[in-house]
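This part of the workshop introduces the protein records we will be handling. As an example, a complete record with its sequence and its C-alpha cells follows.
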Amino acid sequence: MKSPKIIRAEFKERLYRRRFILPNAVTVGALFCGFLACIYGATGQFQKAAIAIGIAIVLDGLDGRVARRLNATSKFGLEFDSLADVISFGVAPAVLSYFWCYRALADQFGVFLVFLFLLAAAGRLARFNVSAEELKSFNGLPTPGAAGAVAALVNFWPEALSPSLVITTLYSVFMLGLAFLMVSRVQFFSIKLIRVSSFTLRTQLAIGALIGLIWYDHQVGLVVLALAYVSSGLVGEVNKRKRKQDPGSVSSLSA
C-alpha cells in the first residue's frame, strides 16, 4: 500500500501535468462571452451584448497571466487565444454594431463597414502573432481596446440607434477610425503592465477621478475610459512628431 506522502506527490504531479487546462478554460470563457455577444446583438439585447464583450476583455487579460503564473504557456494556448480573440473582439463587436446601428437604415453599407472592422481586427491579431512586439506597448490599437470602445458606446446608449443619416455617418467614421488604428503603427501602452506607483501625482488623481466616475455612473465612466485609451495613442503620436520636428527642445531639456 502506498504511503500518504507518495499519494500526495503523485496527485501534485498529475495536477502539474494538467496545469494547461486552467488558462485554456479562461480562454474558453472569453470565447463563450464573444459567442453570447453575437447572439445578444442579433436579438436586440444590446446592453447584454456589450457586457458580454466587457467580460471577455477581463478574461482575456487573465488567461495569459494565469498561464505565466502556472508556467503553462504553450503554442497551442497562444493560437487558441488568438482564435478566441477574433470571435470576441472582431466578430462580436462587428455583429453588435450592424444590428445596433446599420440594419434599419444602411443595411448593405453596414455589412461592408463592419466587415472592414472585422478584417482589421483579424489582421491586427495575425500581425501580433508573427511579430515580436514589446510587452510594454503595442504597435496599433489592441483588439480588446477597439472592442471595448464599441461595447462602451453601446452600453451608454443601449437602444438601437434611430435611422438618422447624421448619426450613422458619425458612427461609421468612428468604426473606420478604430479599424485604421488597429492596423496602424501608432503605439499604445499595455494596461496589463501598469504600475500606479510609477505615475505622477496628477496622473494618479486623474485615475482616481475616473474610478469615481465609473462608480457613480458606469455608462459615462466606461465611455470616458475607452475613449481615453483610444486617444492616448494619438496623443502620444502627436507628441512624438513634435519632438522630431523640434529636437532642440529635447536637447535643452536634457541639458
